[in-house]
Fold these 2 entries.
Entry 1:
Amino acid sequence: MITDASPAAQPELEPLSETSEEQLLEIAMGPQHPSTHGVFRMNVVLDGEHVVRLKPVFGYLHRNHEKIAESETYLGSMPYTDRLDYMCPITNNWAYALAVEKLAGIQVPERAEYLRVIVGELTRLQNHACLIGFLMQDMGSSGTPLMYAFREREKILDLFESLTGARMMCNYMRFGGCRVDMPAGWLEQAQNVVREFPRFLDEYENLLVSNEILMERTQGVGVLSKELAINAGMSGPMARASGVNYDIRKVDKYSIYERFAFRVPLGAHGDVYDRYMIRFLEMRESLKILNEAMRDIPAGPIVDPKMRIRGFRPKPGEAYGRIESPKGELGFYLISNGSLNPYRYRVRPPSLINLTVLEDLCIGQNVADVVAILGSVDIVLGEVDR
Amino acid sequence: MSSLQSYLLLSALLFSIGLAGALTRRNAILVLIGIELMLNSANLNFIAFWRYGPAPAKLTGIMFAIFSISVAAAEAAVGLAIILAAYRHSKTTDLDQMNSLKG
Amino acid sequence: MTVTFLILAVITVAGTAAAMGLRNAVHCVLALTVGFAGVAAIYLQLDAQFVGLTQIMVYVGAVAILAVFAIMMTHTPLPAKPPTYSSFWLLGSVVAAAVFAVLAWAICSSAASTQGLPPEPEVSVQQIGDALMHQFVLPLEIMGLLLTAALIGAVVIAMDRREETK
Amino acid sequence: MVGEGILKGLVETARNFFGSYVGKDRLTTVQYPEERLPQIEAARSFPFLVYDGPDWDKGMRCVACQICEKECPPKCILIKKSADKKPDAVGKPQFYPAVFNIDISVCMSCQICVEVCPFDAIKMDVDYDLSTDDRFGDLLLDKERLAKSNEYYNAIHPTEAAAVDAHFAEERAKAEAKAKAATEAKAAAEAKVAPAAQEQPVGGETQ
Amino acid sequence: MTQALDQIFVLTKQWLLGFVPASAQPICSAILSVVPVLIGFPLLFAITTWLERKGLGRLQNRYGPNRTGPYGLFQPIADAIKSLTKEDIVPLTADHTVHFLAPVLLAAASFLGYAVLPIGRNMVLVNMNAGVLYFFAVGSVVELAVFMAGWSSRSKYSLLGAMRAIAQMISYEVPLVLASIVAIMQAGSLSTVAIVDKQAGYTGIWPHWFVFTPWGVVGFALFMIAATAESNRSPFDLPEGESEIIAGYYIEYSGFKFALFFLGEYLGMFATSGMAITLFLGGWSAPFSFLTWIPSYVWFFAKLLALIAGFIWIRGTLPRLRMDQLMSLAWEFILPMALLNMLDAGIWHFMPAGVLRWLVCTAIVAVPCVLLGQGLKRNKKFQVRTYQFAK
Amino acid sequence: MNLETIKSELEAAVPGCRLELVANPSPSGQHSLRIDAAHAVAVAVCLRDAPGLRFDLCSNVTGIDWPGKQTTEKVKLRKLVDGTQQEVEELRTTTTPGSLEVVYHLFSIEKKHGPIVLRMSTQDRDANAHLPSLTPVWRSAELQEREIFDLFGVVFDGHPDLRRLLMWDEFVDHPMRRDYVGPDDYEYEPTAHDEVLRRANQHLSEAAAKLPSEAVGNQQSETDGNRLSEGGGR
């Protein structure tokens, strides 16, 4: 039982000099490349157009967020978390707040939990819509799906703005609740957006789902096996597309997700098409959650009244809190030594860890597939490099 | 000039240039190109003879040229394919180094 | 007429000479296309429109492209390493020069080559088609066979061995 | 049938093409300098300092407690405390900032300074047309440029400002009541003790 | 009056030629014919870029350019000024001569095709006997220019782009020519003017365009697919695949040379569209007999713009194909269909006119089309999937 | 899942392994298990494969720096002073070496339980900062262990591709260590924060004093120093 240390066999690459019959071409995709979603580089070795090797290069956006957090107060790191995965700042806030709440044992009032679920699922909607748009953009569709996605994202960002004051850098969560309650009329506005959203999804579906070119480009491309997905720590839609039934909303039952009836879609093939369809289906499930949450939201305080903004010192100890962010498992690991600042602050970035298998997915594929695969992994460099 | 003679001279010149290239170049592809050039000069002759010939309406020269071009195209395709195959074998297109039958 | 011919002849000869003389193989092919185009223009000038256009299509559009493709695929060093020419380049040049001398002598001394230009013939594409389909139908068939054979042969020869094993 | 999905997609884009001429919900672009979105009350850009009354320097609420300077995550606030004191909105003598700088090229608009301020002195502005060709000078806002009137605050964040004003009014009323009580007590005392002490000066010369 | 309006350009040219001595007339005539083409089509290019950006914008729920001039109409001028004033950067290791020549050759070659396009009644530069052949012959020069650009830049991306471009253009030249052969077969001539003349005339109000026959519509569709690939338009824009190899063969070009590539691409698109119009859409003839009073060149440009709108529409909708899929589409679908289509055209020619001819010819192309499509789909094993949910 | 039972199960499965429960006083209640480096891989494989445990998802891997402490205490000593035994008070400094700790958070996808927290410590923070890599067991640790190697300087033996992840290859220090001092050759923005500039300049001069001219020249060119002071003067 103990002898075998590597069941998920890593692809063993023969040395290049022996396999290569012809001269190989090594190109650097990125850091200035339209499809690397920011400053990301892949050193790709090509044989013709086929990828023989691919080495991702990280760190162009590295700002040592974790080090900065060690000199900030607990609250002071909250606005920095917005800037991790700037596509979904609110879920980042949430994960951090959750970790601190675990660390200090803070209870969250019910209304705040509902608010968190509402904004969190709205974030998931806009992230998934944009991701599909970007993926299509990478496959060369002149930005049309992306623009449609942005059109809908705009509406959600408007909601965020009128709730939190900022469109992207929301800084919304507080330990033990949320920063502000929703203004008058916000709920109706949000309900409107949620009611209109399925129309957009139908439109998207017409445009994309049965498109032959898209199916040809994505089906059977970048296949990730279930075993590798588990072993390599894939999370979120990336893992579920490979058939891994693991949704932290269901597993950890954090916040109040137990109360909502939603399903977890699973893919059977683990290719780019599955990853893309899983996101489609997740958006539909998110809409269900949103509808229920908006219907049931109770009145009450939005933040634990005992929580103080200044001078927050959790007792010594440590905690790992994680949520199902749109990209996957976003976790924060905090160690407190009883002072104002965390002794250790660690972000478990789903984007980075989902990139572990990038080379495995890309080898043997075409250059054109590499951008599609990278797009389907769904990374944001702010989170990868931190 | 500009009579048949000048065309024939041009054709002869092209032929010699092609021949010189085929004989002197080391690169197999360029040698093949030299041969193509020689074929071309022959075509030029056909056309010139047809045009200055007694019965241009009979199109014989043109037919010859068309067939010759087709043959040349086929020859180029096969020739380049052979060069590619030879390159795979010996990793060079240098004829001076491709002198061994064993490879 | 004469002027046009002279210009075209100069272009053709310059192009082909450059094609055979330049060191960079890609430059050679590009120069060669100039030569081919010149020859095509001479065909046009000789009222052989169809052949001229076919020449452009086949030589410029196919043979030259094939050649550059072959150059790219064989990773010919660009520009070539110093010995661009074969070890017996002197002999080759002499042979070529001799051939030209003999040909030129023969042409100049031939009586037939001095005759004047006959009236412009009426050559429509339709006529060529008719001729191909009636008088020359057998050669056409053979040519078709040859081209097919060449196509298959080229594919088979150039096919990657790795592909075969799959 | 092959091509069905492609045709469906073509129909969808065509619908959007014509829809963008008909429906407002399809063409959401706002032509920025000419049109602007309605101002959202919760919006925030960069902090400013609130002052009461007509004179920005006199009426500034900030008491240079330096809490915001400490709490600011990117450390973009610089405060130097004054040596003397000035009466604040309520009338209590307080310190005031001799220097109050915010480097908005560093500021990340997180609003934490606003949340931690116990004096409702620093608030978030909504102005976003802040581009400038002077990278350093114009992006370093000093006290004078930071100071905005309470009326302005009321205009951009009415609900919030109303609450603040009410709070201040309450405080002031309390202070007045206290002062009144004090004066009454004093008067009572005066009635008892003949040599009346003059009212305490409210200026900053104490300390 | 209609006649005069239709022939206004021809008459103007003749009137102008009256002023020059007879000896200079041929050259002046050539200049007078060529110059309008050299001006008109770049102008159309400018208009098209504006149209494309506007149309694409609307497809994507945007306004498109709307800042320069009314409705952004001066955008092409602004673009031109911008590209002219940009620094011309040549990579240090590039082959300077070839690098310079490539865009020039590309633009020049793109212009050459217009010589045989009849853009109106009696409005063709050269009524060449082998016009269609000429068109395809000069079209093949573009490949060389593309190769020159990609090779001379000494960039891996541009080399990849050039290889892709050449492979794609060579593969699609064959179906392009084969698709057009049906029209040549029916017209019995390689002359573009003769092909257009053959399509003149109306049955009732309905024109005799080749596209209104079973083989014609298939030929037209195949021709347009191949033309899209030939002119590197989306979804076949792999050689410049923005998101994959950035700009492909012209990645190392900037300023005016870049603009020349752009110009070349659009001119190529116009030329192939013009050829499609000539071959299948009746050239400059009016779509209905009662509309013949509108000048012929108007019809030509109207059809051209309609086809360009189609290009823009497709560009705004479809994602890009992959190289191997592009190739398999050419060899497994378009080429067999084109060959079958030739057979179909032959059968059409020899069958007596009537309903039966229609039925037989439609069946000959429709059945294989469906079968090939199904085969393609089955080979690729793609399908719309259904998904399961975890319990 | 009780950590105690896991511990006993592991001890039964991996003979000779030394496991230690580390209590976590915070309300999160995530107690952890310290494993020894020698048996780490075996323990990990057991955790992953044992049918009752099946911790197949290694979610989070991170490092913690525990720098060495210098504690000074007054000790009374008997000593010979001037030939006589005397009780002398003396300051004694004890230096604990400090260590780098690597923490693994494991979950089970199959059984849906977790987390279990594994900890491993290096012997010290310098030469012996070696730990066995668990990447062969959980592939997800690949990039995270690289990151720890990069930012903390823990060398993972058995890692397939141990290179720097976020910092560039030529970088020498490990920025996440507690005692790391950032270099001053950052392009400091001229800012209103004189404090930043003061610190930068101070650090610069300290560095100049500490190191002989050559090393300073490498790290910090003359012009940079000038630029900083210019920025400060603005």
Entry 2:
Amino acid sequence: ACGAKSTDNNTSSGASSGASSVKVGMAYDIGGRGDQSFNDSAARGLDQAKDQLGVQVTEAEAKTGEAEADKEARLKSLVSAGYNPVIAVGFVYQAAVEKVAKENPNVKFAIIDSASDTQPSNVTSLTFSEQEGSYLAGVAAASKSKAKHIGFIGGVQSELIKKFEAGYKAGAKSVDPNIVVETTYLTTPPDFSGFNDPGKGKEAAQGQLDKGADVIYSAAGSSGNGSIEAVASKGKWAIGVDSDQATQPALSKYKANILTSMVKNVNVAVFDYIKAYKDGNPLTGVKNFDLKAEGVSLAQTGGFLKDIQPKIDAATQAITSGATKIPTTPEN
Amino acid sequence: MTSPNPPAKRSFASRFDGEKILLALAAPVLAVLLSVVLCSVLLAVSGKDPFDAFDVMIRYGTASDGQVLTLNRTTVYYIAGCAAAFGFRMNLFNIGVEGQYRLGVLFAAYVGSQVDLPAVIQVPLLLVTAMLVGGLWASVAGVLKVYRGVSEVISTIMLNAIATAVVGLLLIPGRFAPAKSANANAIQTAPVSESSHFFSIETAGGTLWGFIFVAILIGVLFQFTLTRTRFGFDLRATGRSETAAKASGVNVKRMVLTSMAVSGAIAGLIGIPELLQSSFYFGQSIQLNLGFIGISVALLGRNSPIGIAFSALLFAFLDVSGTQLPLQGDYPQEIVLVMQGTIVICVVVAYELVRRYGLKRQQQKVGAELAAQAAAAAANKEVAA
Amino acid sequence: MSTATTARPKTPGAPTKKSKLTWPIVLLLIAGALVLVSAVGAATGNHGLTASGQVNAALGAAVPIAMAGLGGLWSERAGVVNIGLEGMMVAGTFCGAWVGFLVNPWVGLLAGMAGGALGGLLHALVTVTFGVDHIVSGVGINLLIPGICAYVNRIYYRDYVANGAGANQSPPADSLPNITIPGLSDWLADIEKHHWFLVSDVAGIVGGVVTDLSVVIVIAAVLIIASYFLLWRTVFGLRLRSCGENPTAAESLGVNVYKYKYFAVVASGAFAGLAGAYLSLVAAHFYKDGQTQGRGFIGLAAMIFGNWMPGGLAVGSGLFGFTDSLQLRDADNVHVLLLVIALAMGLLAMWHGYRRKYTTAVISLVVAGGLGLWFALTDSVERPLIVATPYVITLVVLALASQRLRPPKADGQIYRKGEAK
Amino acid sequence: MANHDIDITVRRGTVHALMGENGAGKSTLMKILYGMQRPDEGTIAINGKQVQLGTPADAIDLGIGMVHQHFMLADNLTVWENIVLGGEKLHGMGGKAKAKIQEISDQYGLGVRPDALIEDLGVADRQRVEILKVLYRGANILILDEPTAVLVPQEVDALFDNLRELKAEGVTVIFISHKLHEVLAVADAISVIRRGTTVGDADPKTVTARQLAEMMVGAELPSPASRESTVMPDEMLGVNGLRIAKTDAEGIERVVLDDVSLRIRRGEVLGIAGVEGNGQAELVEAIMGMIPLDAGTVTLDGKDVTNALTRARREAGIGYIPEDRHRHGLLLEAPLWENRILGHVTETPNSKGVLLDPAGARKDTQRIVEEYDVRTPGIEVTAASLSGGNQQKLIIGREMSHDPKLLVAAHPTRGVDVGAQAQIWEQIRSAQREGLAVLLISADLDELIGLSDTIRVIYRGRLVADADPATVTAEDLGTAMTGAARGHIESEPDAVAEQKATAAEGTEAASDRSADDTQAGE
Ligand SMILES: Nc1ncnc2c1ncn2[C@@H]1O[C@H](COP(=O)(O)OP(=O)(O)OP(=O)(O)O)[C@@H](O)[C@H]1O
Ligand SMILES: Nc1ncnc2c1ncn2[C@@H]1O[C@H](COP(=O)(O)OP(=O)(O)OP(=O)(O)O)[C@@H](O)[C@H]1O
Ligand SMILES: [Mg+2]
Ligand SMILES: [Mg+2]
């Protein structure tokens, strides 16, 4: 067995089976399809591409705390099974994508949420201006807060989540420079359990509520479920993240208290990427999906933003026109 | 708390006793089979085809790329297993391998990114750094145990969490990680210098890590220390009976400190192959749970360097080939955890049953031989009278 | 027991110094701590340490740890070390959420306990019947059960996506009720707001207990107290403890040691299961992979911390729950905690000085000074350290006070019937 | 096989003694009677009815109670908890049970405090708790397995008084002992077993100690008789002003050794007499460097070793025969040759430099096995598979192989069969003639008197009395051990002479035995 590679016998069958159709391989981060959040959004884009573009797809997901080599192996397996393009969901794949892409220059790769100076040209980065959407969330929060006291809960104090915090604070301050913003991070890297522990989210939210905050934005994966519950049970406003939390079955009970969600339209990015590839002019380099490109937006479910819509529109206008510059790291 | 030392070696003749070999092999083989059966049932009940699933795993595990991955992973698991086993051999339950490993590799990555010496100095420097940091972190638990009577079980659990905090603290950009990272969303140290790279072997199946030789060296040293040195004798004696060791003149306190530190030093090396052979930086995507895998591997390998090699290989094979399950047939790869769990439990039960049987046989033999001696003595006496 | 002479009676000599922890001393210590915290609250203007919400959250965070620890206590009192608590907790999270979703959360709690008990049964089978090393069995269980739960979740909940299930989480179950004592709660909240020295602090603490308290917290408290009575005041408990102290002696008096060990380990699993069900039915409303996050181990630590006694266990898990929720609720509180600990260490140094233990006194004083300086020179504690607060505090407390601990004598030893020497 | 073809008939309301050498199978037989082990074949009848004893619970139900050779008590439980355990139905768990315990205790004058923790009790008290456990259950058949091994003579007398009282109430007592005069004093009937089978019965009214010895022993019956002094003038061990205080789990400090000073000269055996738990163990551990001292100095051969580690002391020439060989003397799970290394890992033939020398150790183990007559099929078997006496011989062989200057011997012949006993005494004596100093601790007062050159009595951590073995009887020594006598003890010359005569009779019996050897084999 030593000589043969695992892929020796199925490369032919894989690549040639559907000459007409594109085969898209998708590697999710932990949680995968059905995580009610980020990965799910990517999955929606993939489903859309399958329906509308008729592409073939296969999916695999990361395991908690797995080795770097497992990610590489996953990507390699997708490549050698004939999938092209291969989409990696989440910045944890950066190193693996770079490595596998260098070994397979003929295959196109996309990585979501990450970009690096050293990645080869067959890698496309699909990134989002989280700070812009969060800025709008900050505007909404500050406008809705009666106590002039709001809160931010980050799942893990990573660079990515700090962008959310930075935008949110800037947005809130733009409405009311004196507003008080509580900040809590549930864990710090390398402990990523903060994205995964609703109990922690609940406690953190309760702490902020007890201190007087009345609108709380949580960018904390499924820990956010806990904070939304805590906020709703006190009758205050919650702001969700990634997917529209008000439409999540798991949170339907608290719908009335979900002010909005800062939606990151990963599905749009994924769909656009696949479509461009199929159309023969693939996206390259770093493709940033910002507010203007509808990469990020505020969800409207429930219509709670109606009364402050003018303010949000104005802020949107200022951002898309470039008039407002939003920091990507929190001020303090 | 544990009975970490395998039963004594048998005599030369009995070591090659066919029945014994059969028994010794029967235990693990039966256990693996039993676990395969249990997992098959689980797969079948959930509407999956178990044969196909195992086929996927075996096909990948026997392909050259799968083999290389498995061997690389075995290297890591083996070192982790040795780290845990060293403590176990002295009845120390070092749950803290996890934290020691993370701190060790973080510091090695940092030093490697800051210093650029010729490879012959650089590589040993990084190894020593990792061992030193891992050893020192483990020593905290050792010191607390010896001087404050804190059970190493709790202190290492706490130290694992604290190690995570320390890593977080040091990884704040501008400290061990560069202020501006090349990779926008990830926090990680700068890559280690070129001279830090460890040699590797290119094969048809990919890159085989040269660190496997270091792992083998660790195993050889471990075995040699344990069976051939005075220190090793003291260590085993303490593991078998602390009271007897103390009465025999072993300085148990110093022994606890030393073995905790050595266990931690080995733990410090766990992340090195990944660092110096593959990723070249320390970041958030570091493999978690290696400490716990090490404990399982050590216990499965009965804390002996040879046994650990087999159990590390088995665990690595399962983990590596398990990644193929969702890709080829939509099998949840969690089935691998189930297999590992059942194997650990089945193997120890099987070993215990075999051990009991063996002990009984030995006692019977001793009894029979003594009776024969006594009879002979009586006969002699009568002749004399 | 190898010979009768190993146990050495302490007839010679007369007791010279006595420093036993009696009730009056404990109460005095509690009162002292309260005064200290109140004073710091008044001085810094931060009353977070005794806020009712903080107390409430601390209780909530303590429950899973205390229940896991109680599981450990039952099992170790019968002489079986249970490292597998973590795995049994996972069984509790899964079964609890599953039945909680299908039926209702009350039945879910029971199902969680049943799931944990099943894990306990496996541990009992392996350690008691087969006589395998307790640690090895526990490690195996910690691999096996989470694997099974994650696997089943992935397969089983595919049909429930519309209900909110995902690849690694279950659909949500309904909530269990919270208890508030109507008049008292408001009255106390009112007093708390005034920040009166000591009075408001006491009001905050009591308020936290009578406001919005999850029923499961009450159940947990009842179970801890009931365990004490069951284990220390009944025939059953005496027999069970005798199995952890000297199983051969128990056997020689006609006690069926295997039966009690089995019972204890299964009960141990049930408590761990309850801890898990709390996580998946109260802390969250659904099961999620990796939800327990090592709380089983922390529970074990809390039990050792509490000297294998229910009261001590409650204190240990309370301490952990307190610091854990403190850092989550308000990071500033951790900064204030620095001052509290610095002052406490200062007092400890004085006490050691008074008792002429000068080295310990000096060490305490240095630590106190260092912490005080840290407090004075900074505005906040760095985030990663905040997250580590509960672990650091537990370690420090253990380092100061772990020499008094006394595990059951036959804890972790493999017992075989009829092999008495 | 531990027992085969055993036939014993015990009449109601009698004290029936069971005798036999170590490992003869007495305990095994009793455990079978008590349901703790199952016989492969044979029957047990109680009051004429055949019974099945599957578990101790069955035996208890039938009114059988047993006091085991090794105590069966849970240290961390109180006296009443230990007594009530398993028999909770009788009188409940509360005040009624305690009252009942107190009542029985008063009735037999046992003086037991129900609320005391077992770990705070002395050996004699523990024994009384064991007896109380049985009485509490209203047993009418009482099995006592070597109850006198750890008692001083006065305590033995008290125990016998209790037994007679029980007998008067119709209780049947089965009593196991190695000590001839005890058996003759208390028993109504005697059965002797050897190598797991009954050898015969004897009537204590007519049988003599000598005849009994003949039935019982398959080897020479030894007694350590006094002999020429070999004491030389130079001091080997000096202990000055030793003080040790321990803090227990509750934080209570207890002084276990107080101002202990002694010296042992070259060629001298110093015997320490004392009831167990009076500080002997700590004295030994202090000399071995195993526990820290609060005050005092220890010198060996003129050199101060007060701060030396245990290993350094052993290298300097202290041999150690621990009181509990399983805890302190052996690695039970390790083969014999590794046990030969234990304690001497830094010395030849066990190691060369930092490396072990397994070949050398193996070879020397073989030599010890032959020279010391360790009965074993080989040196690769585990120490656990040897019988107690053979384990002890291995330990002694090991310690003697390094030419110690000082031998610390705690109960060197406890639990060892009579043949091995004589051999061990001879080993000690011959080394003593070459200048070995010995610190001897023993509960066997005959051994102590026979072997020592000087005797000191330890009581509550202090050396309170001393005696010349030539002029003291076991009874008077026992009195001093209970703290009732202090200073220099000298017995009535008549009593000393009588004791000497008894001892001589035993030896005579043994030497006679080898002459008319023929019928012993049955
Ligand atoms: N099931 C068995 N089969 C064979 N031999 C056994 C068995 N059980 C015990 N033995 C051995 O039989 C011998 C009898 O042991 P036992 O404890 O009954 O001796 P004893 O007469 O009480 O001696 P002692 O005077 O030392 O107490 C011992 O050597 C023991 O190890
Ligand atoms: N189940 C058994 N089957 C056969 N032989 C046994 C069994 N149990 C014990 N033995 C034998 O008993 C001997 C050791 O037993 P044990 O340690 O009880 O001896 P002992 O003389 O009573 O020692 P001690 O006085 O230290 O208690 C060995 O020869 C061993 O082979
Ligand atoms: Mg016996
Ligand atoms: Mg014996």
